[in-house]
Design goal:
150 residues; Four Helix Bundle (Hemerythrin (Met), subunit A); elongated; Histidine-containing phosphotransfer protein; HPT_dom_sf
Length: 150
């Protein structure tokens, strides 16, 4: 590709690998395509997602550790977390959130624990990969002004 840096190719290959593993889906690609209209969209969206997901998972941990589980609140948080993870392309995490939400709607305590473990496991993997994408995006953004001035 003309005008593509080695770092951009590396990022594209990394994202392709995450899609092949089922960690990301086409929603990530759609977000990336919108970046031509809104520079830094990916960086801002991923940063916001990671911040909000950290808070949501901490809330879920607290709620599920309480003597009496507030199932409607667990359902609400799982639903919001599903939507935000799906919107950035985190399809496996979104699926795990569905498991948690379904268990919570059914007032299934053991199912909630299982679902939360799935959510946390998928989030840790997604978080690691999104942080890697963010590092590459920041590096690419730092290179772009220098490339344009050459």
């Amino acid at each position: 590709m003309a005008g593509t840096t080695p770092l951009t190719e590396q990022l594209n290959n990394f994202v392709r690998s995450l899609r092949e593993q089922g960690i990301l889906d086409y929603h990530f690609d759609e977000m990336k395509e919108l970046e031509s209209q809104t520079p830094c969209l990916v960086i801002e969206a991923l940063t916001m997602f990671l911040r909000d997901a950290d808070a949501a998972i901490a809330d879920l941990f607290r709620l599920l550790g309480a003597p009496l589980i507030n199932y409607p609140k667990v359902t609400e948080i799982a639903y919001q977390l599903k939507g935000s993870s799906a919107s950035i392309g985190g399809c496996r995490m979104a699926d795990a959130c569905c498991v948690l939400r379904n268990a919570s709607v059914a007032f299934n305590k053991d199912g909630c624990f299982t679902g939360f473990d799935m959510v946390r496991r998928e989030y840790l993997q997604l978080q690691e990969n999104l942080n890697h994408i963010l590092q590459m995006e920041h590096a690419i953004k730092a290179i772009e002004p220098r490339r344009r001035s050459q």
